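User: Please fill in residues for this 237-position structure.
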């Protein structure tokens, strides 16, 4: 249905949360999925690889391993990310750099080794996992917001650069999603957040994964590039 059978896809941070949901959903629709992790591997995926996205050499090696063991990479999902929240007036350089290094530099490190290969083969798709915070901002997350907005800019530019080679680049931008991080938010705070969401609920990880499948597919997403798919329940349009 989605034309993903036997397509090789690399997902960064695919061992848990939204990343694991993406891995599982892509697999369900026939893709051969490799994913990176830093600590514990997840339950899904054909090829788990321990690699740190902040390290270009490790990501280059990961890409080589995927190509050797699974075949030519068709898609990359730049999902790995962290938070380190506080107000800008209290944020130290380490808090800023840690988030920039993982979320923004990590995305560059993940796609840089693959792009020339895709361009040579004249097919492929990059998907960046951004956030509603990158589209509208959020108090206490200036570092996180900056990186997630940056991913949108990367996708728009790569959409232009890759078009001549038949390589697409898009963004999935989740709103508040039922992840482990959100589950730890106090109920009173959750209630306040829910009031800002017209659909009055958080997204499920599976709903975000469906967005990735849609854009990754050469059938449903084949004429979509440089676009942002916002999955946020109407919180920001």
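Assistant: Residues filled in for all 237 positions:
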């Amino acid at each position: 249905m989605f034309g993903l059978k036997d397509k090789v896809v690399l997902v960064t941070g695919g061992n848990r949360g939204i990343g694991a949901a993406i891995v599982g959903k892509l697999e369900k629709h026939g893709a051969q999925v490799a994913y990176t992790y830093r600590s514990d591997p997840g339950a899904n995926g054909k090829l788990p690889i321990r690699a740190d996205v902040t390290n270009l050499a490790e990501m280059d090696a990961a890409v080589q391993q995927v190509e050797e063991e699974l075949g030519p990479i068709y898609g990359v999902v730049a999902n790995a990310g962290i938070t380190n929240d506080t107000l800008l007036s209290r944020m130290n350089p380490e808090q800023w750099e840690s988030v920039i290094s993982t979320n923004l530099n990590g995305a560059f490190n993940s796609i840089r080794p693959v792009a020339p290969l895709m361009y040579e083969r004249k097919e492929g798709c990059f998907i960046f996992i951004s956030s509603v915070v990158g589209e509208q901002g959020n108090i206490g997350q200036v570092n996180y917001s900056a990186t997630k907005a940056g991913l949108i800019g990367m996708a728009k530019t790569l959409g232009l650069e890759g078009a001549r080679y038949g390589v697409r680049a898009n963004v999935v931008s989740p709103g508040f999603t039922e992840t482990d991080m959100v589950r730890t938010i106090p109920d009173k705070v959750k209630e306040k957040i829910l009031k800002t969401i017209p659909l009055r609920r958080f997204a499920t990880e599976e709903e975000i994964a469906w967005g990735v499948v849609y854009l990754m597919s050469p059938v449903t997403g084949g004429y979509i590039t440089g676009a942002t798919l916002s999955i946020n329940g109407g919180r920001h349009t």
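For context: The chain has one domain: 8-230.
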